[in-house]
Amino acid sequence: MQRFEFHLSLSSEHYLDYYRGAVTSVVARCADGQTVQFPAALLQPFVTTTGIHGDFVLTCDDANKGARLQRR
Predict the structure, then answer these.
(1) Tell me, what's a Pfam family for it (predicted)?
(2) Which residue from 35, 57, 37 is spatially nearest to 46, judged by alpha carbons?
(3) How many domains are contained in the chain?
């Protein structure tokens, strides 16, 4: 299992591109310097009126399938 930790700070206006489907993937830089890309749909449970802010952990299997996003 792979684990990626990163911080996100997206305003609600910026998130609209993801919500509307104009942008389907998110690219984030992890705390260890790696870059990770994942489906924007995983962010939906974390959207507030101010956007998405916080530290997150993305886990997936070794084939990069079954991605799961959690707030840290």
Answers:
(1) DUF2835
(2) 57
(3) 1
Instruction: Output the domain CATH number for residue 52.
Output: 2.40.50
Q: What's the predicted TM-score (pTM) here?
A: 0.87
DSSP 19-69: HTTS--EEEEEBTTS-EEEEEGGGGGGG-BTTEEEEEEEEEE-TTS-S-EE
Parent domain of 33: 2-71
Determine the pLDDT at residue 21: 84
Whole-number pLDDT of residue 37: 94
Query: Confidence class of residue 39 from pLDDT cuts 50, 70 and 90?
Result: very high
Q: What is the pLDDT of residue 20?
A: 87
Place of tokens 């998130």: 15
Alpha-carbon distance 43 to 24, whole Å?
11
